[in-house]
């Protein structure tokens, strides 16, 4: 079971956020303090939620947010981060499946028309495309990014 975090609990997961940023290789583009502040803002205005498996020693992290798609006129939930600290965890598939189900339940409860997610494959981060596919997600768009800094 995943624990949905309150505003005050979010700073307590700084370590797993730092691990996520490091593993994705995006240290030059963000930091844990920014992620914490953004998550807290989303929780305050009821546009985002954060879950972990254990607040004292989290091994997995889920961060989702809602937005209105400007082109398709759909309310969409986006999985901003799905992260398991130990890639060799024997319960990895179960944890990931539980995070997807949690995100999908959240999306349905918030009246979303769709749920989407992206995987950072940046600076050598491992692709999790097979996990998306095995949980019923289909590639719909390809984003091409050029960093200007």
Please, could you describe this protein's structure?
α3 links the parallel β4 and β5 (114-117). The mean pLDDT is 88. The chain is built from four helices and five strands, in the order βααβββαβα. The protein has 149 residues and is an alpha+beta fold.
Q: Say what oligomer this is.
A: single chain
The Cα radius of gyration reads 15 Å
Q: What is the averaged pLDDT score?
A: 88
| Class computed from helices, strands and strand pairing | alpha+beta
State the helicity in percent bands: 25-40%
Distance between the termini: 40 Å
Unreliable spans are: none
SSE order and pairing:
Elements: E1 3-4, H1 14-24, H2 32-44, E2 48-52, E3 60-68, E4 75-84, H3 92-109, E5 114-117, H4 129-134
Parallel strand pairs: 4-5
Antiparallel strand pairs: 1-2, 2-3, 3-4
Helix pairs in contact: 1-2
């Amino acid at each position: 079971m995943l624990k949905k975090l309150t505003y005050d609990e979010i700073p307590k997961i700084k370590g797993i956020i730092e691990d996520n940023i490091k593993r994705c290789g995006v240290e030059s583009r963000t930091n844990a303090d920014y992620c914490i502040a953004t998550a807290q803002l989303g929780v305050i205005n009821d546009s985002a939620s954060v879950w972990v498996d254990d607040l004292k020693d989290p091994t997995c992290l889920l961060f989702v947010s809602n937005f209105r798609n400007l082109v398709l006129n759909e309310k969409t939930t986006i999985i901003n981060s799905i992260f398991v600290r130990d890639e060799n965890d024997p319960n990895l598939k179960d944890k990931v499946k539980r995070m997807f189900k949690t995100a999908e339940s959240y999306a349905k409860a918030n009246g979303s028309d769709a749920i989407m997610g992206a995987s950072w494959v940046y600076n050598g981060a491992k692709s999790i495309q097979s996990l998306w596919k095995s949980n019923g997600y289909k590639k719909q768009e390809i984003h091409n990014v050029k960093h200007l800094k």
